[in-house]
Amino acid sequence: MNTQLFQLLLSLFAILLLALLAKIYWPKDWILDKDRVRRAFERSDYDITIRDIWLNTSNTAALIQLDSNKIIGYAFVFGDRVTCRTLGADDIKSVHYMETHLDVAFHDYTLNALSFNFCDSASCKAALEALTILKPINEVHP
Questions:
Q1: In angstroms, what CA-CA distances link 91 with 55, 111, 121, 130, 133?
Q2: What is the domain partition of the chain in residue ranges?
Q3: Which of these, 60, 45, 50, 76, lies nearest to 130 by C-alpha position?
Q4: What is the pLDDT of residues 25-55, one digit of tens each?
Q5: What is the distance between the alpha carbons of residues 62 and 130, in angstroms, rounded to a whole number?
Q6: What is the pTM of this model?
Q7: How far apart are CA 65 and CA 141, in angstroms?
Q8: For the segment 90-131, what is each residue's pLDDT rounded down to a tens digit?
Q9: Domain 34-141 maps to which CATH number in 2.30.30, 1.10.1670, 2.30.29, 2.60.40?
Q10: Exposed / middle / buried, residue 94 (Cβ in 10 Å: 0-12, 13-18, 19+)
């Protein structure tokens, strides 16, 4: 009887230890910062120079202004990975904006529509300006 109790307590301790290690090494929420976006994007396309990065308020997605006026970068968290894409004018279906919010719809069905909340209107306007270089202003709707 005493051996069974010891084995039970040892098993409970092992389970708790594994749960603690899983919480430390595999956190549930993954967020972006500008350095992580820059590293991930440069790793996926090292020939392009990044001019500016705008993160959404939840730090799970970023719009990236590139040196080229023909494409813009987009990065988002997918699990513990950062997925990076370059978007041209043909990829963007429409852009709707408010003071601190952008909605971008894409022609590509594999890319979900982007709903992007900014901390301030200046960041939203800067990202909108980068997007309007790709799409004519009459296709950007308030």
A1: 20, 10, 25, 14, 13
A2: 34-141
A3: 50
A4: 776 667 888 999 999 888 887 788 899 999 9
A5: 13
A6: 0.71
A7: 20
A8: 888 888 888 888 888 888 888 778 888 888 888 888 888 888
A9: 2.30.29
A10: middle
